[in-house]
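--- STAGE predict ---
source: upstream dedup step, 1 unique chain passed
mode: sequence only
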Amino acid sequence: MAKQQEEVYFVFMNFDPVYERLRADRSKEGSATLDAYLSHKHDKLLAKLLQPDSYRKRSSLAIVDGFAVEITEDQASVLRSAKEVRVVEKNQELT
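--- STAGE serialize ---
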């Protein structure tokens, strides 16, 4: 059986009051705290739902509480079913 192709997907999270509180702090320290919180939160979700070394997180997106990750369509379906996740969309090239 052929291995599924990995593509970049954007994963957007459901409402998180901690994220909203941290995002309101516009200081340099507040921004660093928000970045660390989101990176850890997103890494934890991926580790809980997907097999180790089967994905590659590219970045966390602090402005929208989301992240970009290289995964297969099957893995995207797994993420879509998570209660913490609002939307999973494949990256589309603009032409």
